[in-house]
């Protein structure tokens, strides 16, 4: 049946709404081939319809199948773009290698462009009053307390705090740090909050 | 919250403004979070508050690190920063979601200089849409049969649901709000000052924008 593959594609990505899967290059190619085939068949029959009106319905059904394929493909891309956007807010402008692999080359390019655009917007904030911009990806959660206790999960090295103090982040060491300064590190998986 | 702001300000006149600015910003934030569509920006307020934060940060740095006041003020600052960040972020999310719709409306509004977006938000929205377009084109549209290659913007656009219901509080007396009924019968109601209602968003959208009511 027409447009069956595209439904499979959408169902696959729907199955894990919160995580991103490998970009399904293969299936997309198959769908594009199907569309090509449908189109060619339509072209043939469309030329013949002037004599034979009975082919008209067939052409229309194929055309709807084409439209459906296109719409679903776009939906697939859009849902992936939304997921990629979430990645930008979670990981910052550099993606971990294992996630990077899940994106296609074009998607990675889109990610970089999105990231650049977001960064230049954030830089422009408060520029008129001599501010160097605000990082909106910090402060994602309402601040509950000024300091939190964190456990360092891996050897990270030196971290300079806002007030100029430098601390060493070693594996399995515990620290009592300002919440605002560890948010990014927590999201990157360097630190873990212990309450 | 306000009491901490005024502790840091020296002269009488500024004290009132900082409070009002923060209040306006909080209301704007609340409205923005609860309204289905994008609201006019409050960039002046945001910038004013950012300036205020800078000022307060400098004052805090003068205090000793172990001073209790310093940590209370820092907490305060973090809260204000969160409000600002979340406010701007909520706007960005709406801009991304209803990008096509917002850009179309904004183009009309720019002609009359009643723009809702700040210049940088506008630029962000344009670039965002352009990136999506390019991406879709290079991955799918350039590879499909020739009669399918057009990208129909009006078909992929998302629109905010203005029919949704919202909780609201009237800041002042508003007379004659016209509510449309499904049956086509219009009903007129008056909102008393300080009263709270649950209404559809659409008839009160303008009241939210000019501050006569606020969403709660």
From TrEMBL, chain A:
One of its GO terms (biological process) is DNA strand elongation involved in mitotic DNA replication. Residues 144-194 form the DNA replication complex GINS protein PSF1 C-terminal domain. Belongs to the GINS1/PSF1 family. This is DNA replication complex GINS protein PSF1. Its main location: nucleus. Required for correct functioning of the GINS complex, a complex that plays an essential role in the initiation of DNA replication, and progression of DNA replication forks. GINS complex seems to bind preferentially to single-stranded DNA. Component of the GINS complex. InterPro entries: GINS_A, GINS_bundle-like_dom_sf, GINS_Psf1, PSF1_C.
TrEMBL record, chain B:
Keywords: DNA replication, Nucleus. Its main location: nucleus. This is DNA replication complex GINS protein SLD5. Residues 54-138 form the GINS subunit domain. It comes from the Eukaryota. CDD domains: GINS_A_Sld5 (cd11711), GINS_B_Sld5 (cd21692). One of its GO terms (cellular component) is GINS complex. GO terms for biological process: DNA-templated DNA replication; double-strand break repair via break-induced replication. Belongs to the GINS4/SLD5 family. The GINS complex plays an essential role in the initiation of DNA replication. Residues 160-216 form the DNA replication complex GINS protein SLD5 C-terminal domain. It is found in: Nucleus.
């Amino acid at each position: 049946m027409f447009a069956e593959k595209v439904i499979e594609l959408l169902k696959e990505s729907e199955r894990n709404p919160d995580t991103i899967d490998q970009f399904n290059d293969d299936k997309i190619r198959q769908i594009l081939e199907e569309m090509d085939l449908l189109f060619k068949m339509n072209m043939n029959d469309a030329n013949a319809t002037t004599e034979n009106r009975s082919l008209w319905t067939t052409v229309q059904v194929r055309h709807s199948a084409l439209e459906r394929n296109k719409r679903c493909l776009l939906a697939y891309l859009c849902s992936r773009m939304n997921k990629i956007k979430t990645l930008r807010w979670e990981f910052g402008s550099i993606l971990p290698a294992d996630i990077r692999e899940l994106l296609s080359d074009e998607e990675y390019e889109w990610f970089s462009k999105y990231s650049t655009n977001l960064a230049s917007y954030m830089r422009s904030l408060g520029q008129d009053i001599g501010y160097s911009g605000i990082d909106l990806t910090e402060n994602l959660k309402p601040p509950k307390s000024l300091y939190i206790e964190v456990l360092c999960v891996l050897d990270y090295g030196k971290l300079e705090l806002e007030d100029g103090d430098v601390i060493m982040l070693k594996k399995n060491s515990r620290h009592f740090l300002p919440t605002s300064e560890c948010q990014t590190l927590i999201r990157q998986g360097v630190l873990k909050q212990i309450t | 919250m306000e009491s901490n702001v005024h502790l840091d300000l020296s002269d009488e006149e500024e004290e009132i403004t900082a409070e009002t600015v923060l209040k306006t910003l909080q209301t704007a934030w609340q409205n923005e979070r609860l309204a289905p569509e994008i609201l006019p920006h409050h960039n002046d307020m945001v910038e004013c508050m950012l300036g205020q934060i800078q000022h307060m940060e400098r004052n805090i740095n003068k205090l000793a690190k172990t001073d209790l006041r310093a940590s209370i003020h820092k907490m305060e600052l973090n809260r204000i920063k969160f409000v600002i960040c979340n406010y701007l972020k909520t706007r960005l999310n709406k801009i991304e979601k209803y990008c096509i719709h917002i850009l179309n409306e904004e183009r009309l509004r720019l002609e009359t200089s009643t723009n809702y977006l700040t210049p940088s938000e506008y630029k962000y929205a344009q670039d965002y849409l352009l990136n999506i377009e390019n991406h879709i084109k290079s991955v799918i549209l350039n590879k499909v049969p020739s009669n399918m290659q057009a990208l129909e913007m009006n078909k992929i656009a998302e629109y905010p649901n203005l029919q949704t219901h919202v909780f609201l509080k009237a800041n002042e007396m508003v007379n004659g709000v016209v509510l449309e009924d499904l049956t086509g019968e219009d009903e007129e109601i008056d909102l008393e000052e300080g009263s709270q209602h649950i209404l559809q968003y659409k008839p009160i959208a303008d009241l939210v924008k000019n501050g006569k009511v606020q969403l709660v």
